[in-house]
Amino acid sequence: MLLLNKIDDVRKNIKDWKEEKYTIGLVPTMGALHKGHASLIKKAKETCDKVIVSIFVNPIQFGPNEDYDKYPRTIEKDSELCRELGVDIIFAPAPEEMYGENKKLSNNEFTFIYPAYNYVDCMCGKSRPGHFDGVATVVMKLFNITKADYAFFGQKDAQQLFILKQVVKDLNLDINIISCPIVRETDGLALSSRNTYLSETERKNAITISKALFKIKELYETGIKDTNIMFDTAISILNKDIDLEYLEFRNFETFEKVNELKKNTLIAIAAKSGKTRLIDNIIL
Ligand code: AMP
């Protein structure tokens, strides 16, 4: 396995792989890898001849008051896991490698990708303005650098997944986006690099987020479809110290809000436990 920091070094390897007609899979991550990331890597290994994992805490997707500085960075442990999983290249660039030296990372001095407003100006995009522009921009850069045939994303970040699929479609990019299911702890909590921020009590309270989602699914399976009933049920399950940001019901094909649940409805939650913002969802 190669651990590369420079775009040119990645490109040299890609050129050789392309000559050999290998299929290339990309797993974009911000590191602090856990079993959720591992599931994406395993899927990439099954699907592709060569696998690149990018590890990059992307400054342009963090707001000014967010956790960019304190985001966990565990490259040695991450490398060990990637090696065990048979990853071919880890691409772990410095911010300067991706965005140049001395640039102000705004659209005055740098080219951004702006996904369609309807998908960005809602849910996580409401409380994190600019977040998905930063995500789309870095992901397009990674697609161009790696020339991957397949890219693997978790359903955990459902809005991100939806937006990236749209960008690929709208810009006719020649890459297949593969969606991978959410990996959870045995008690239901969705794995996240940010779970390390949680105190014991905050973690215990956070379990009620997935509990609320599972209850909604259970009710749906008994024939209840009204989202108002689902909303009230979820509120009654969420621990009182969980600070709900949104609970939304959307058609995962169009991203439109729905009043009645049906197949392919996305039920998505964002909430804070203590100071830590968590997201989770299920798709019926
Ligand atoms: P991150 O490092 O948090 O940016 O995540 C990198 C990729 O891993 C994204 O596509 C996430 O959706 C995915 N991911 C994060 N947590 C999970 C999880 N618990 N299960 C499945 N995929 C996940």
Notes on the protein architecture:
The protein is of the alpha/beta class. The chain folds into 2 domains: 2-180, 3-Layer(aba) Sandwich (Rossmann fold); 193-283, 2-Layer Sandwich (Pantoate--beta-alanine Ligase, Chain: A,domain 2), CATH 3.30.1300.10. It contains 10 helices and 9 strands. Helix 7 (131-146) packs across helix 8 and helix 9 packs antiparallel against helix 10 (227-237). Strand 3, helix 3 and strand 4 form a beta-alpha-beta unit. The mean pLDDT is 97. The longest helix is centred in the C-terminal third of the chain and has 22 residues, at 200-221. Residues 29-30, 36-37, 39-40, 153-154, 156-157, 180, 182-183, 190-193 line the site of adenosine monophosphate.
Task: Provide key terms for this protein.
284 residues, 2 domains, Pantoate--beta-alanine Ligase, Chain: A,domain 2, single chain, 10 helices, alpha/beta, Rossmann fold, 3-stranded antiparallel β-sheet, binds adenosine monophosphate
